[in-house]
Amino acid sequence: MTKKTSLKDIAQTVGVSTALVSYVLNNQKENRISKLVAKKIREVAEELNYRPNQIAKSLKTNKTYTIGLVVADISNPFSSSLARIIEDEAEKFNYTVLFGSSDEKPQKARKLISALLNRQVDGLLISPPEGYEPQLAELQNQGIPFVLIDRYFPDLKTNYVALDNYAAIHKAVQHLLDSGYERVGMVTFHTSLFTINERKRGYLAALKENKIPFRKTWLKELPIDASGSAIAKAVDDLLRGPKPVDAILFASNTLALYGLQQINALHLNVPEQVAVVSIDQAESYNLFRTPITYIRQPLLEMGQVATKILLESIKKNNTTTQVNLEGELVIQDSTRPVEIIVSPTVPVG
Amino acid sequence: MTKKTSLKDIAQTVGVSTALVSYVLNNQKENRISKLVAKKIREVAEELNYRPNQIAKSLKTNKTYTIGLVVADISNPFSSSLARIIEDEAEKFNYTVLFGSSDEKPQKARKLISALLNRQVDGLLISPPEGYEPQLAELQNQGIPFVLIDRYFPDLKTNYVALDNYAAIHKAVQHLLDSGYERVGMVTFHTSLFTINERKRGYLAALKENKIPFRKTWLKELPIDASGSAIAKAVDDLLRGPKPVDAILFASNTLALYGLQQINALHLNVPEQVAVVSIDQAESYNLFRTPITYIRQPLLEMGQVATKILLESIKKNNTTTQVNLEGELVIQDSTRPVEIIVSPTVPVG
DNA sequence: CTGAAAGCGCTTACAG
DNA sequence: CTGAAAGCGCTTACAG
Q1: Angle, CA B335 vertex, CA B331 and CA B340 arms, to 5°
Q2: pLDDT at A217 > cutoff 70
Q3: CB B24 within 8 A of CB B14
Q4: Amino acid whose CA is nearest the C1' of D13
């Protein structure tokens, strides 16, 4: 390995102090430095293929220009899409991002964040697991800048950017009812996460306002790490029996993915036999024979706004910014109104 | 912000030197340090909520325990799945990963890698864009440990882990021909990337060995950043005209995703009207009405092996390891043999 | 216009 | 068993 060249090396070959080299390469005090020396310094730096050691710089300046991103699972499209947006936004400000997956486990998130903080990240973007309030409060006490993303805790006064889940789901259910569906089921997670419970609340409220008596068999609440077969089973339960639901609302992309597979397996036509709405968009929905109505999460805005708030907060950490974004209901064929269905056996292909 | 506690703080409150504190907290020279002092030091460290400053440590030891991951696009499921595997593998050795997306652009990759190197990553995992040989050679000259992943350059003696693309595609085409399909088309990318061209070579070789005269209208080569509609158009071309293909091989998950959408749009039945094979698996394929035959990329092995080679190479950078992994052909309904199709109008749902 | 010097928070030979 | 000291590669008041 060719030895890395340092400021000192440049200083020595040019015959000046490291201070001067530092000033020149950081474009500081430009007016006070002789153009000739500056030119020479830049030339030598180029020649020796100088790379500033960001680690040394960080030690001195207490800034790493690195942010930590904690998601549930980077391999989930929701997380990776967000990661990409955050990467691009951070890059605009010369920030780089370290990431990690919590797998919805507070212990893992804790360990991860600890590793990120040891590396002196300037701040964190966190999609926290259930029950993570205490650690977040701790981060606040330590004055560490962070922004929650997608999820937040109403009792904690933190920065966050999330979907207005209540309104989004309410709108979706209202749309189903307006379209003539009467027995709307929901597949969601059983968790204490506010975000997820807001979805349930929106669902129940919409039913109530429309004077539809809710039946508890319509609501399937699964563990947050539910397997594909558990999800399939829940969908199966909703669709069998004497009084099956005529519409299903999926509370996440994973639920929809496995749910739709089960609907495929049952050879049911959408929306003739069951209407479908999902939260989150996924490219994969396009492969389903009927285009799926979904609540579009404003991922671009979510990632960009969260990154901006974080970078602001890193500069001067004194305000709290909370943003609830509106979800757009993208209406497609999977919720076609009941009335205009011409025949119950519309060709499928 | 409560001031961070340093080794010095601990040393002062305990009344010892920072050297001693460092030894104790790093479990060094254990036999030479009095148990009492060691205990006291640990207690105070705990009490003051000490976090080692990894930046300072790195400056001294020249190790950051961070690796850089450069993919084409972190939001692509192929990349994000790999990222997750690498994250998990790296974590076992207390490494954290910084990532970035190159968007298939050498300039962007270069800038990214430069940023990662300035942060003193211990090594790099790179899925390089087309034409990246010169920069890789440069990295080698500088003695920077790296491993190429998914893609490599045959003329460059570097570490790499990739699929044996030739063999995998050859196997897939042979399977199609064995199943009775005779006019096998391929949708791939037009690029100088060896990996991609190996796929084309496997396709052409399999046709030749089976004495099938290749027609150039069967092969669609798209720009690597082709839009969904360009992909749809290519599929359309293959399937229209007097002599359409009866099977299509998609050379990537993105191509398959848009290609299948177009097949949906054309209301064609798979495999009755056109058989389909794809490289890469994607959860989304499950939403297609016919389960898709695909070449399973050994992602787990790819990510794990690449990470291991990199960590080895970081320890002592003196050997070159090149690994070609075998792809498994997962045969599903989309390539059902022509002979056993009972009726041309099998029900679809 | 330029340099000597201190210091960021650690590690690690070296001396005792 | 323990400490004083040098040094990793930078930045930045301060002095001239």
Answers
A1: 110
A2: yes
A3: no
A4: A19
- pTM for the structure as a whole: 0.93
Q: Return phi, psi of residue A203, to 5°.
A: -65, -50
* Res. B349 pLDDT band, cuts 50 70 90: very low
Contact A257/B at CB under 8 A: yes
What is the location of CATH 3.40.50.2300 in chain B? 64-163+299-326, 165-297+330-335
Neighbour tally for A316: CB within 10 Å: 8
Average the pLDDT over B1-5 and give the result: 67
What single-letter amino acid sits at A61? T
Question: What's the token pair of residue A74?
Answer: 């980077």
| Contact status, residue A188 vs residue A221, Cβ threshold 8 Å | yes
Residue ranges, CATH 1.10.260, chain A: 7-52
Residue A286 has pLDDT above 70, yes or no: yes
Burial code (b: 16+ CB inside 10 Å, e: under 16) for B265-287 equals: eeebbbbbebbbbbbbbbbbbbb
Query: Exposed e or buried b for every residue in B237-264, given b needs 16+ CB within 10 A?
Result: ebbeeeebbbbbbbbbbbbbbbbbbbbb
Q: Which nucleotide is nearest to A9 (CA to C1')?
A: D9
Mean pLDDT of B29-34: 78
Q: What kind and span of H or E run contains A277?
A: strand A275-279
Which residues put CB within 7 Å of chain D, the nucleic strand? A 4, 6-8, 18-19, 22-23, 25-26, 28, 50-53, 56-57, 59-61; B 15-20, 29, 31-34, 37, 56, 59-60, 62
What pLDDT score does A346 carry?
47
* Residue A94's pLDDT band (cuts 50, 70, 90): very high
**What class, spelled out in words, does domain B7-52 have in CATH?**
mainly alpha
Residue A278, classed as helix, strand or coil, is strand
Task: Grade residue B316 by pLDDT with cuts at 50, 70 and 90.
Answer: confident
Q: How far is the CA of A159 from the C1' of C7 (A)?
A: 34
Question: pLDDT of A316-334, one tens digit each?
Answer: 867 999 999 999 999 999 9
Residue of B nearest to A286 (CA): B261
Name the band, by pLDDT with cuts 50, 70 and 90, for residue A348: very low
CATH architecture of A63-163+299-325: 3-Layer(aba) Sandwich (3.40)
Query: Which nucleotides on strand C sit less than 7 A from a protein beta carbon?
Result: 1-5, 7-13
Per-residue pLDDT, A338: 84
Mean pLDDT in residue range B310-338: 93
What's the CA–C1' distance between B8 and C12, in Å? 16
- In angstroms, the CA B247 to CA B249 distance is 7
Interface membership of B197 toward A (CB under 8 Å): no
Taking CB atoms and an 8 Å limit, are A100 and B99 in contact across chains?
A: no
pLDDT tens readout for residues A156-175: 999 999 999 999 999 999 99
Q: What is the CATH number of domain B64-163+299-326?
A: 3.40.50.2300
Instruction: Give the closest residue to C4 (Cα–C1′).
Output: A17
In CATH, the architecture of A165-297+330-335 is: 3-Layer(aba) Sandwich (3.40)
Instruction: Read off the tokens for B125.
Output: 């995992």
Alpha-carbon dihedral B278, B82, A295, A337, rounded to 10 degrees:
20
